[in-house]
Amino acid sequence: MTKILQRNLYREVADRIGDLIEHGELAPGERISERELCERFGVSRTPLREALKVLAAEGLIELLPNRGARVVRLTFKSVKDTYDLMAALEGLSGELACQHISTADIRSIRALHDAMLAHYEARDLTRYFEVNRQIHERILAASDNPVLQEMYSNLSQRVKRVRYSKQMTDTFWKRAVEDHEQMIDALEKRDGQKLGQVLREHLCNKIEIATLAGVIEEEDPGAARA
Fold this sequence. Notes:
Blueprint lengths: L8 H14 L11 H8 L3 H13 L3 E4 L3 E4 L2 E2 H25 L2 H19 L3 H18 L3 H13 L1 H4 L6 H19 L3 H11 L1 H10 L2 E2 L9
Parallel strand pairs: 3-4
Antiparallel strand pairs: 1-2
Helix pairs in contact: 1-3, 4-6, 4-7, 4-10, 5-6, 5-9, 9-10
């Protein structure tokens, strides 16, 4: 992996570790090896430890007193609690977006949606997720509410590996695409109530996918695994 040379070193390191967690290279419950990551990224322990503090604040890892750090395990309850808040925020963003969004931005989001459908037809899951993410980000941005966007972003980091899980069955994928069709239709009609409703319900199947994929544990693992 390319060594990190950017000015905000600890943030860049945090982002790289976050990517490892998202893509399953660092598994839930796995201990973080500072030595291995320092060698991998070509950095000293100081920015690495600052990065770990950032990731702990974002809910991706937990710091263990005098024992380093490990990747947080996601339980069904923790994910559901997070999604309940995210759904409320995303639903509100849809309502606000319909009040503030420009016609040009609606057309731009429609173009992204059409591109996403092409990736769906090609069964290109990686590109599908990338465009999917851009659509949600554009709707959030159209809410014209920076506080909402910041709160949503912080919560989303905690469950990113669930939301964009690679374990997507055809049934779940088809449902997600149908949801997006409804989103775009509501947005073009500037129907804030409908868009808010669809966005709130859209996250529900993500928990099912992650549970089936083994990303979420049914019960809290407890102190016995510490």
